[in-house]
Write a structure and sequence with these properties.
Layout: E1 2-5, H1 10-22, E2 27-31, E3 51-55, H2 61-71, E4 75-78, H3 85-90, H4 93-115, H5 119-124, E5 126-132, H6 157-176, E6 180-185, E7 187-189, H7 198-208, E8 212-215, E9 221-226, H8 227-240, E10 246-249, E11 254-256, H9 257-271, E12 281-284, H10 299-305, H11 313-326, H12 328-334, H13 337-346
The chain binds nicotinamide-adenine-dinucleotide (NAD) and 2'deoxy-thymidine-5'-diphospho-alpha-D-glucose.
């Protein structure tokens, strides 16, 4: 079996659902169920014996040792993290705890387990660390896109914690020989994304007739990838990636935030005609230290492993908007009191 951490979050749950739709190999899913984790994402697997869910923390060394020795996974796919930049600005401590200390604790447990494996199983074992393009910092308008050799320059507490975890993963390969793979991916969007991130937040607010809060001048650029394509990329890296290597993953879909929000308004209006949603766009105070532009050069994974995205931004966005329109109950369940408290804190002004 494989062990997935953070498999009740946005990308992790898409990955688990996708994996079990395509493979008979069971998944052990370890997730702490923070505000971002949601077992409702995995409701389709309720009666599927191939999915073993354990609520727990990647920082719990005893639990990790027990799970590894009991289930004997052949690979770890490490998604678990605190993932939201704005929350990292309000409270960075949790980001150190999970993204840095948690990843270190996981690496230590995996090292002990891996050391005791027979040689052929050691060779076949993989630790795939899911990271982000934000570790590379911010690009100017004419800079070339981030490649795997771009120097690290994280600017937010979130990206600093992810950069640190990447370094730990790298060190475990160079020092101990652990067969690690690291992926650095651009902004994901798609079904099951918690509505604190740009696209689902705008959908929720648009449907509720609330303001669509665009930070600063709305000219920041992100490079968007449909979550299903990210899952395919991870499976490809797991299967064909070379241990110790880093693979950048992106969707070739750079877009200014304001243009994206207008495109989203048009998509919503097309699927749910009614009021003029774009009139809800409101400029709000900028995010402190807001990175201006991210762009991924995904040549290496295409050239060496043969992966490329299947969705265009237009096709992925329509699928996403349809999913949110069709899943009102899911949305109601995640926009609870705690969610409203976050919205009040973040958008108070
Ligand atoms: P998410 O916030 O939706 O989900 C994170 C999951 O991790 C949740 O289920 C949460 O309960 C779990 N978790 C948090 N702390 C934990 C702990 N201490 N122990 C066990 N589980 C814990 O995040 P996401 O957007 O799905 O991102 C998944 C991974 O992909 C993260 O590592 C993130 O840095 C990376 N990433 C995300 C994006 C993106 O656009 N969302 C892009 C590139 C990389
Ligand atoms: O680049 C990969 C990263 O993408 C991942 O590592 C992170 O986990 C993920 O959260 C995402 O980070 P961003 O900060 O880019 O995503 P977010 O959805 O928070 O914001 C996207 C852009 O939209 C960013 O420029 C800030 C802006 N924004 C965001 C929100 C929530 C707004 O203008 N208004 C908003 O209300």
């Amino acid at each position: 079996m494989i062990l997935v951490t953070g498999g009740a979050g946005f990308i992790g749950s898409n990955f688990v659902l996708d994996w079990l739709a395509q493979s008979a190999e069971p998944v052990l899913n370890l997730d702490k169920l923070t505000y971002a984790g949601n077992l409702g994402n995995l409701a389709a697997l309720k009666n599927d014996a191939r999915h073993v869910f354990v609520r727990g923390d990647i920082g719990d060394a005893a639990l990790l040792a027990r799970l590894l020795n009991e289930h004997r996974p052949r690979a770890i796919i490490h998604f678990a993290a605190e993932s939201h930049v704005d929350r990292s600005i309000h409270g960075p401590a949790e980001f150190i705890q999970t993204n840095v200390v948690g990843t270190f604790t996981l690496l230590e447990a995996v090292r002990a387990y891996w050391n005791a494996l027979p040689e052929n199983e050691q060779k076949a074992f993989r630790f795939l660390h899911v990271s982000t393009d934000e570790v590379y910092g911010s690009l100017g308008a004419d800079d070339p896109a981030f490649s795997e050799t771009t120097p690290y320059a994280p600017n937010s507490p979130y990206s600093a914690s992810k950069a640190s975890s990447d370094h730990w993963v790298r060190a475990y390969h160079h020092t101990y020989g652990l067969p690690v793979l690291t992926t650095n991916c651009s902004n994901n969007y798609g079904p099951l994304q918690f509505p604190e991130k740009l696209i689902p937040l705008m959908i929720v607010n648009a449907l509720a007739g609330k303001p669509l809060p665009v930070y600063g001048d709305g000219q920041n650029v992100r490079d968007w990838l449909y979550v299903g394509d990210h899952c395919t990329a991870i499976r490809t890296v797991l299967e064909k990636g070379v241990p110790g290597e880093v693979y950048n993953i992106g969707g070739n879909a750079e877009m200014k935030n304001l243009d994206l929000v207008h495109t989203l308004c048009r998509a919503l209006t097309a699927l749910k005609p009614g009021r003029d949603i774009a009139s809800q766009i409101t400029f709000v105070k900028d995010r402190p230290g807001h990175d201006r532009r991210y762009a991924i050069n995904a040549d290496k994974i295409r050239r060496e492993l043969g992966w490329q995205p299947a969705e265009t931004f237009e096709s992925g966005l329509i699928r996403t908007v349809r999913w949110y329109l069709d899943n009102e109950t899911w949305l109601m369940n995640v926009t609870s009191k705690a969610y409203q408290q976050w919205i009040d804190l973040q958008y108070a002004q």
